[in-house]
Design goal:
Layout (H helix, E strand, L loop, with lengths): L32 E5 L2 E5 L14 E4 L2 E4 L1 E6 L5 E6 L5 E7 L3 E2 L5 E2 L4 E9 L3 E9 L5 E10 L5 H4 L9 E8 L2 E7 L5 E9 L4 E3 L2 E8 L4 E10 L8 H17 L3 E4 L2 H16 L1 E2 L7 E2 L11 H10 L5 H13 L24 H4 L14 H16 L2 H6 L1 H15 L42 E2 H20 L3 H21 L1 E2 L4 E2 L2 E2 L5 E2 L5 H8 L4 H11 L32 H13 L3 H17 L31 H4 L1 H10 L1 E4 L4 E5 L9 E9 L2 E10 L2 E10 L3 E5 L5
Parallel strand pairs: 28-32
Antiparallel strand pairs: 1-2, 2-3, 3-4, 5-12, 6-7, 7-10, 8-9, 10-11, 11-18, 12-17, 13-14, 14-15, 15-18, 16-17, 19-29, 20-21, 22-25, 23-24, 25-26, 27-28, 29-30, 30-31
Helix pairs in contact: 4-5, 4-7, 5-7, 7-9, 7-10, 10-11, 10-12, 12-14, 14-15, 14-17, 15-17
């Protein structure tokens, strides 16, 4: 089929780009606390504050806009001392503070540690803070406590460093006896407002400084309540009720998932943290049911690639995530040619933004389609979802979307007719590199030079291969055996070409990509590891790829790096140039399993497990440094990594699936179990209510010497559990 001429409109390609993949001006959020619920999140320093001159993006955010840019508590005469600070619950934050030696209004000096402040916040549709101040002096005191408050209504891209020629109008604060309101009239015509109400009424409010005067007897407490509402939201619950409501929703989220319990309490905590973080990132959506935001704070919205991958990572635990994400991604599927947004018919979005800079077309993210892999991953997710659920009703509903996405692969994805899906951006404000390694300097040749577009990435060809293979039985079930046969035939042909054209005989490894001239980029990267996950690699070539990924130049001891330490561009703190990404490692680990490399799978699992135990709350971040593991046994943090990040949260769920060897075939009423092999530190795994189609299974895995034994404790519904020796590639 002839490609429309609009497809090659690349005049604006080199006019500069926005490196969406990496915060620019932000320096360090390693110690920042984050709480999030629904579409609201708060990022504070360790004391729970957002200082007025902060340069690290702290604040209260909604829909890509910062609604509080100053949110600071202090004593009138001194800064409090932080004794405890935690945001472990995900939706609630607590600090326990005390005073340094300081004067009170009676003129005497209060001894340090004689006044306790408990500062608790919970976020739901609004942000609520409860402050309890207790006097432990043996005499009465009068002190002032102060809140500094302010709102700049900055777009999150502005916070991250994007320069703007002009902004909207900050309106004068509206001050009443018990409230203060900040407002902004944007260039997009929208009025944004932050309303803070106080109970009881403060002693004084001047601009953004709110003072409470407290007179407290011995062991007497005073309670102050702040309610922060955005854009006129009405308070639906109060205090304990709000906390209990969200707690119950978290509990229901975990209880409705496949239940996994091991003998190892730390691993149980790591796995529960992963599933809880996915609930923390969940956005409710009336049309699709919801979706996980990609990551807080920088990617707190719908991303096509991330949604598809985290859905596949968690199919064994919570298939509802995949169901909702499939519907959500289909809703935003491309309909027309729009070079500004890199949109084409049938293409799945890269990301969707709602801030002022997007609304005024300063940025093309409304939504933006500059992703080469969102579309094949959407298709692959549909096939994997069918394998786990046999939910033909949903796939029949999505059949037009699946056909449109397949048409995009064939008509628009292959830009130069060489049989591979490749990318080259057209939008002047779009993303230069459009695979998952999407920072501007990520895709390099062995000598460190940047690869010239159009670029065909190794792992993307794997996604396309796996999507075609997995969708063949779907279309057969939908009554189109001709398309099913064609998809199978095309997958076989693509696999043959890939193993011929991407293989680097001298390096005994696969190329990162083919450039615009069809030349293979010989940089050693993690990308071919994801090709293993998709099954596109010939079995005879898998062993040297696995060996290359586990060499010291690639395996840091904490995980597999994105780029080999032998490459001239290597930087252990480079965003995609040597760091370790948990989601990348999890897909590679599943690839190891599929080709029978259980020892290497367990080595990666052990490295990531050790890393998770070193991070706060056992939460794997978006990425961390590729610095070699030292005797101090602590991974080096990446200073501006998102925490939580959806596909980092999905890492351990799919790694455990790989360890246990779980392969679904819901249409046939089968669960295959392929050579389970528990790592040395995991003696047993209990799996309850594992759903495959209309059946469920309870399984128990335990080590007996060097062997892992499977006990099928129960099956319910139409399901047979069958051990097999080889993963069906």
């Amino acid at each position: 089929m002839t490609k429309p001429s609009a497809r090659r409109d690349t005049k604006a390609t080199n006019r500069g780009h926005l490196p969406e993949a990496e915060p620019m001006a932000i320096q360090d959020i390693r110690d920042a606390l984050v709480i999030r619920e629904r579409d609201l999140f708060l990022l504070t320093d360790v004391s729970g504050n957002v200082p007025p001159d902060d340069v690290n993006g702290l604040g209260l955010y909604h829909a890509d806009t910062r609604y509080l840019s100053t949110y600071e508590f202090s004593f009138d005469s001194a800064q409090p001392v932080v004794l405890l600070s935690t945001a472990e619950l995900g939706f609630s934050e607590e600090q326990v503070l005390t005073n340094p030696a300081m004067p009170c209004l009676e003129g005497r000096i209060l001894p340090r540690g004689s006044v306790e402040v408990r500062r608790q916040r919970v976020v739901e549709d609004v942000l609520e803070e409860t402050l309890r101040v207790t006097n432990y002096n043996v005499f009465p005191i009068t002190i002032d406590v102060v809140y500094g408050l302010g709102a700049d209504f900055a777009d999150i891209f502005e916070v991250r460093g994007s320069e703007r020629k002009q902004r909207g109008e900050l309106l004068p604060p509206r001050i009443e006896d018990s409230s203060i309101a900040f407002a902004y009239k944007g260039l997009d015509g929208r009025r944004r407002e932050t309303m803070i109400t106080f109970s009881p009424a403060p002693f004084s409010i001047e601009d953004g400084t709110t003072t409470f005067r407290l007179s407290l007897g011995h062991r007497e407490s005073a309670v102050i309540r702040l309610l922060v509402a955005i854009n006129g939201r009405i308070e639906a619950a109060q205090g304990v009720e709000r906390f209990a409501t969200v707690s119950a929703e978290y509990r229901q989220w975990l209880e409705s998932s496949t239940r996994v319990l091991t003998h190892h309490e730390f691993f149980n905590a790591v796995l529960e943290r992963a599933l809880s973080d996915l609930r923390m990132l969940w956005n409710h959506d009336e049309d699709s049911g919801g979706y996980p935001a990609a990551g807080t704070p920088w990617y707190d919205t719908l991303f096509g690639r991330d949604s598809a991958i985290v859905s596949m990572q968690t199919l064994a635990y919570k298939p509802e995530i995949a169901c909702h994400c499939l519907k959500g991604l289909a809703r935003w599927q491309g309909q027309k040619f729009d070079p500004w947004r890199d949109e084409e018919p049938g293409k799945i979005l890269h990301e969707w933004r709602q801030g002022e800079m997007t609304a005024t077309s300063e940025l093309p993210f409304s939504p933006y389609y500059g992703s080469i892999d969102s579309t094949p991953l959407f298709l692959l997710l549909a096939g994997e979802y069918y394998a786990w659920t046999a939910d033909l009703e949903l796939l029949r509903e999505l059949e037009p979307n699946l056909r449109a996405a397949l048409n995009w692969l064939e008509v628009y994805g292959d830009m130069n007719g060489d049989g591979y899906v490749e990318y080259e951006k057209r939008s002047p404000r779009g993303v230069v590199n459009q695979g998952w390694k999407d920072s501007g300097d990520a895709i390099v040749n062995a000598d460190g030079t940047l690869i010239k577009p159009p670029i065909a990435l190794a792992e993307v060809q794997g996604y396309v291969y796996a999507a075609r293979r997995k969708l063949a039985p779907v279309f057969a079930a939908l009554g189109d055996p001709e398309l099913a046969q064609r998809l199978t035939r095309e997958a076989v042909q693509l696999k043959r070409r890939f193993n011929r054209d991407f293989w680097l005989e001298d390096e005994r490894f696969f190329a990162l990509a083919l450039d615009g001239g069809g030349q293979a980029a010989a940089a050693i990267t993690s990308n071919p590891g994801q090709a293993l996950w998709t099954g596109i690699v010939h079995r005879r070539l898998a062993a040297p790829v696995v060996e290359g990924l586990m060499r010291n130049d690639m395996f840091s001891g904490w995980g597999i790096r994105t780029l080999s330490a032998t490459c001239s561009r290597f930087n252990p703190l480079g965003y995609h140039l040597g760091t370790v990404w948990p989601h990348d490692n999890s897909l590679i680990a599943m690839g190891f399993k599929k080709y029978g490399f259980e020892d290497e799978l367990n080595e990666v699992a052990t490295a990531l497990f050790d890393a998770a135990r070193s991070f706060r709350y056992y939460r794997l971040p978006e990425l961390f440094a590729g610095t070699a593991r030292s005797t101090h046994h602590t991974p080096v943090p990446y200073p501006v990594a998102c925490r939580p990040q959806a596909w980092a949260a999905g890492a351990f769920p799919i790694i455990l699936q790989a360890i246990l060897g779980l392969v679904p075939n819901a249409p046939a009423g089968e669960l295959l179990v392929v050579r389970p092999r528990l790592p040395y530190w995991l003696d047993s795994v209990q799996v309850r209510n594992l759903r495959v189609g209309r059946g469920e299974a309870d399984l128990f895995f335990h080590r007996r010497g060097t062997r892992t034994v499977l006990d099928v404790q129960a099956t319910r519904g139409r399901l047979k559990v069958r051990p097999v020796r080889l993963w069906p590639l």
